[in-house]
Specification:
Elements lengths: L1 H13 L9 E3 L7 E2 L6 E10 L10 H19 L2 E11 L4 H17 L3 E9 L4 E10 L15 E5 L4 H9 L7 H7 L5 H7 L5 E5 L3 H12 L2 E5 L7 H18 L5 E6 L12 E8 L3 E6 L2 E3 L10
Parallel strand pairs: 4-5, 9-12
Antiparallel strand pairs: 1-2, 3-6, 4-6, 7-10, 7-11, 8-10, 9-11, 12-13
Helix pairs in contact: 2-3, 2-6, 4-5, 4-8
This protein binds adenosine-5'-diphosphate and magnesium ion.
Adenosine-5'-diphosphate (ADP) binds next to helix 1, strand 4 and strand 5.
Length: 311
């Protein structure tokens, strides 16, 4: 199949930028990459797969698809408190369109460059739909990884950025709204790597908000064997979200919508690192009673762990 070989040589060419890192002995081009981990550090490894039509609309721009595939993995690395280092890319293509690939690679390398993570290898296959899988490693000082299981009663619960934007953005994506803020929040999530690094060895528990704030916070509660009270009036919501859908719907998105890739974490309020204080909002506290209580002013709002309100 000489034609296929040419195509895949072409693909490899788009993903062979030099790594430029002393931690990469050999990157793309051989049977495997050879890496040089920093001495004495622990490795964190994550993987996230995006299937067209399931995890993102097939009509999304190629550079946004590339950017997002990297950003959602950076987010998992950040939630562990690690420094991102290396990644590999498994790409399943319906067809090898060189323009599409060049644009996809541009978005992918843009996200990688923001945090100095090196693409060191991958695999390219043909299939019935577009699938983008990125696997990433980061490292940290031994014993400083932040787990879901360490939250303690009395901890304050914080979240980075704003929540709910991406769920609203996804709903508007099909309208081809170009540079609509909410759409950008879905297609190019901001990985909170700097905050995650500041939390290493400091936060009691952390998770990145991919499925929705309430549902993801419940994973911390389950893993930590504790409860929490959430103050819905403190949930950080963007002006754009409130203007687009009004407060009631914004709150639904903020609680139950996914894809924001913000970090939710817990620690005693006095231990919040000063360097990240202006990047986070206190939204509640951990309690010793099991379960999650959400308050909207004086009203207690019943939620299930998908974050949807019961009426
Ligand atoms: P092999 O047959 O030995 O598995 P491949 O022909 O699949 O090797 O790939 C050759 C080189 O190109 C390898 O270094 C591999 O890591 C890299 N590579 C293939 N596809 C990609 C991709 N989508 N992104 C980055 N590197 C890739
Ligand atoms: Mg081989």
């Amino acid at each position: 199949m000489p034609k296929a070989v040419d195509e895949f040589d072409l693909i490899r060419r788009y993903f062979s930028r030099p790594a430029n890192s002393p931690t990469v002995v050999a990157g793309v081009g051989d049977d495997g990459a050879v890496l040089r981990p920093l001495e004495g550090r622990e490795l964190v490894t994550v993987i996230d797969t995006m299937v067209a039509g399931t995890h993102f609309p097939a009509t999304m721009r190629a550079d946004d698809i590339g950017y997002r595939a990297v950003a959602i993995n950076l987010s998992d690395i950040a939630a562990m408190g690690a420094e991102p280092r290396w990644m590999t890319l498994a790409l399943t293509l319906v067809e090898a369109d060189s323009q599409w690939l060049a644009t996809f690679a541009a978005g992918l390398y843009e996200a990688a460059a923001e945090w100095g993570v090196a693409l060191v290898g991958g695999d390219t296959t043909r299939g019935k739909q577009l699938v983008v899988s990125v696997q990433m490693e980061g490292d940290l000082e031994p014993g400083t990884a932040v787990y879901r299981s360490g939250a303690k009663p009395g901890d304050t619960i914080f979240v980075t950025g704003t929540v709910g934007d991406a769920a609203a953005g996804l709903g508007r994506l099909s309208e081809d709204t170009g540079d609509d803020y909410l759409v950008r929040r879905f297609v190019r999530p901001t990985a909170r790597v700097g905050v995650g690094r500041a939390l290493a060895g400091v936060a009691h528990a952390a998770i990145d908000v991919s499925d929705g704030l309430v549902g993801d916070l419940c994973k911390i509660l389950d893993a930590s064997g504790a409860g929490a009270e959430l103050d819905l009036q403190r949930l950080p919501m963007s002006k754009d979200l409130l203007a687009a859908v009004g407060r009631a719907q914004a709150l639904e998105y903020a609680m139950g919508g996914g894809d924001d890739y913000e970090l939710c974490f817990t620690l005693p309020e006095s231990e919040l690192p000063a360097a990240i204080a202006d990047k986070v909002t206190a939204i509640g506290r951990m309690t010793s009673e099991s379960g999650l209580v959400c308050r909207d002013g004086d009203t207690v709002v019943a939620v299930d762990d998908a974050g949807y309100r019961h009426f």
